[in-house]
Amino acid sequence: MGRAVSYPSTIAGMASPNESRGASSTKRITAAIVSVLSAMVLVVLDAATVNVALPSLARSFHVTAGSAVAVVTAYQLGLVMAFCRPRPSVKAAATGAYSKQG
């Protein structure tokens, strides 16, 4: 097993790298997990709501069941494409061109 590295504080009041990753990092990870799980629940509820309402929507708009299913499929594919779209910061981080601004 490796030995824990202890860094001396060079500036008064400055925490070592090992100390600075404590509760703050745990809170950020917990918040990220809660956010992702909440988003997943909302997506499932959205799909379930649309699928339950599908027969009523088809009758109201006087369309065939196949047409209604095609519209819902296109809607869900649009959501997937919107969520999976690469963000500029992701591209920059992947290519190593990311620079912290501030």
Primary descriptors:
102 residues; mainly alpha
Cα(first) to Cα(last) distance is 39 Å
Low confidence ranges: none
What does the main sheet amount to?
none
The arrangement of helices and strands along the chain is HHHH
Q: State the secondary-structure class.
A: mainly alpha
DSSP helix fraction: 55-70%
Tell me the β content: under 5%
Number of helices: 4
Radius of gyration of CA atoms, rounded to a whole number? 24 Å
- What gross morphology would you assign? elongated
Number of strands: 0
Q: What is the averaged pLDDT score?
A: 75
Provide a descriptive summary of the structure in words:
There is one protein chain. This protein is an all-alpha fold and 102 residues long. It has a domain at 44-87. 68% of the residues lie in helices and 0% in strands. It has 4 helices and no strands. The protein has helices at residues 17-20, 23-60, 65-83, 88-95. Helix 2 (23-60) runs antiparallel to helix 3 (65-83). It is elongated. The protein starts with 16 loop residues before the first helix and ends in a 7-residue tail after the last helix. 1% of the residues are buried.
Question: Care to give the gist of this entry?
Answer:
By secondary structure, the chain is mostly helical. The chain has helices at 17-20, 23-60, 65-83, 88-95. It has four helices and no strands.
